[in-house]
Amino acid sequence: MRLLSSLLLAGLLACAPLSAAERSFTILHSNDWQSRLLGFGPNNEYSPATVGDDDTVGGVARLATLLRERRAAAKGEALLLLDGGDFTMGTLFHTIAREMGSELRLMSELGYDAAVLGNHEFDFRPAGLAAMIGAAHRAKGEALPTLLSSNLRFDGASKADDSLQAHFDAGRILPYRLIERGGIRFGLFGLLGNNAVAVSPMIKPVTFADPVATAKAMVARLREEGAEVVILLSHMGVIQQADGSWRGEEVELVEQVPGIDIVVGGHSHVALPQPVLVNGRTPVMQAGSEIQYLGELRMSLGDDGVPRLRDYRLHAIDDSIAGDAAITARVEDFKQVVSQRMLAPRGYRFDQQLARVDQRLGREFAEHSLANLVTDALRHAVDADLAFTGNGTIRDDVIKGRHGVQDVSDLFRIAPLGIGQFDDEPGYPMIKAYVSARELKSLLEVLLLAYQLRDSRSYYPRVSGVRFSYNPWRVPFDRVSRIEIGDPVAGYRELDLDDTRLYSIGATSYVGSFSWLVPDLTKGLLDVVPKDADGRPLPRIEDAIVDQDPQAEGVQELKEWQALLDHIRSLPDLDGDGLADIPSSGAAAEPRMLRVPSLHPGELFRLAGPLQWGASALLLAGGLLLLCLLTRPLRRRRH
């Protein structure tokens, strides 16, 4: 009887389901490649074939080697390689992306499973992104990583996004994807955030639905289809607060949408040494930008179905890693295509040494040499009285490296953005328009406050041909207290607001477009009417685009990047080494926007317009009224 009972118990245990063993998985991730296929530093110093002999970081060939090592270290457990978007736009390589699909082809060769579409993927308009995907697909076929965009919406009334929608219909862009690997069912979806959409001028006619509502729908759909681990690929960003905590769209979205297990982020270029744990469990990750790092998240999935963090590492990509030879060869092929198609017609080569610097030139507000170099180039290119841009359009520092030599490819990175209005070629076209002295002050007022009103440091103004002061104690849109026209070589003279002459301004079509929007931006408080040299109003910004060769058919656009390269090449060679010397100190480093806080009447009312006078009159009247009210009881008691 005792033997029979033992046999029955053994049979019941054999029939009972075993508890699920804990399963482990690894997520490798990157974000914001921005076409930075070579090392982060002077390109002529990047040597991926050897180690320990340069100071550059990054490089897609080194990334390939690191990925191979990390896959081997995973020892066969489930592993995904994911990207947080903006894989294109920022270097000369992106100029051939539509023809070659270069970045997507490299992602295919590196074995990426999926990437979210970032805002810079749309910089060549939806049709440009479609061409990029098409070129990569022709070269790599179904090996392409899945491109995710859950909140992407097409415009049925416009044909401008039809070619991109064709890729969506073909499954090369998906709202979500399920991947089963190592016995785990992963559900992936992708979102483009509100801030990213707001800084994408070429994104139309496509639109993007509300990220939070979309995320809730995607999580529900993925769970219904059996996803055990839900991963959001997000191009939204995180922002560190004064107290060291992290906020931003990615954090706030996870707080509002239950069921997201992991966020592979991008857009804000933050190298997080450890994930931000939202609600105590969901890791939000970001691996810097421009292939300087690779993130590695290791997690386990327990019996309760809840993924738990085991550990995280942010791997630096530097000269301690030898680059993959095959990937290096592929990049060299792309360099040749860039030189042939993009640069040779304008008299340049990819690896052409053009200039030398004696120190790093940065983009911080307190640094002026690089911003002055860029705006001087814009002014000289169109022979304008003054020029302006925003700090955010200056996309890279000038990195000295060991020798200070700057190639064409290094200097292009300073001003790489944009696409033509008429020719559809890479680079923002230059514009030239004319304004009166008072309108010039209005432009400076808008430039001054734009970066504050838009809550973005990218709009911090940079100027050439003008030096101005502002008083923060004055009312908005009437804070400019002194304007001087000129430059540090020829000298400056104070601007007379009653001067009847017109002043020419140079800018890119992107930055200069705000000149047509001043009445809207200021709610009608200020007015500017861009004009031609004869004072006739220019109704559209297209009317102000500079034509390099009016005798030729159509408009031959002058690009911002070409204006910069031409200007740098024209700088004097001071040491006789055959390279232009980029100035970094003295007059080249002068500040051109000066903050002068003062309650002195002279500073409060110099160049003041109706806003400052009106506000002062109201303040004075309010003060007198208050004084009367306060003294009235005293007068009554005397009677």
Query: If classified by CATH, what would the architecture of the largest domain be?
Result: 4-Layer Sandwich
As a percent range, the share of helical residues equals: 25-40%
**Tally the helices: what do you get?**
18
Evaluate the radius of gyration. Answer: 29 Å
Q: What are the segments in which pLDDT stays under 50 over at least 5 consecutive residues? A: 1-20
Q: How much of the polypeptide forms β-strand, as a percent range? A: 15-25%
- When the domains are counted, the total is 3
The global form is globular
Derived from helix and strand composition plus strand pairing, the structural class reads alpha/beta
Query: What is the tally of beta strands?
Result: 28
How would a textbook summarize the main sheet? 7 strands, mixed
Describe the protein's architecture and organization:
This protein has 18 helices and 28 strands. The strands form seven sheets. Strands 6-4-3-2-1-16-17 form a seven-stranded mixed β-sheet. Strands 7-8-10-13-15-14 form a six-stranded mixed β-sheet. A four-stranded mixed β-sheet has the order 21-26-19-22, sandwiched between helices. It is globular, with a radius of gyration of 29 Å. The chain has three domains: 297 residues, Purple Acid Phosphatase, chain A, domain 2 (4-Layer Sandwich), CATH 3.60.21.10; 244 residues, 5'-Nucleotidase, C-terminal domain (5'-nucleotidase,  domain 2), CATH 3.90.780; 28 residues. With 639 residues, it is of the alpha/beta class.
Q: How is the topology of this model organized?
A:
Layout: H1 2-15, E1 23-30, H2 60-73, E2 78-83, H3 97-100, H4 102-110, E3 114-116, H5 125-140, E4 146-148, E5 152-153, H6 162-169, E6 173-174, E7 176-181, E8 184-192, H7 194-198, E9 207-208, H8 211-224, E10 229-235, E11 239-240, E12 246-247, H9 249-256, E13 262-264, E14 276-278, E15 282-285, E16 293-301, E17 307-316, H10 325-343, E18 353-356, H11 369-382, E19 386-390, E20 405-407, H12 408-412, E21 430-435, H13 437-453, E22 461-464, E23 466-470, E24 480-487, E25 491-494, E26 503-508, H14 509-512, H15 518-521, H16 560-570, E27 580-581, E28 593-595, H17 601-605, H18 610-638
Parallel strand pairs: 1-2, 2-3, 3-4, 4-6, 8-10, 10-13, 13-15, 18-27, 19-26, 23-28
Antiparallel strand pairs: 1-16, 5-9, 7-8, 11-12, 14-15, 16-17, 18-20, 19-22, 21-26, 23-24, 24-25
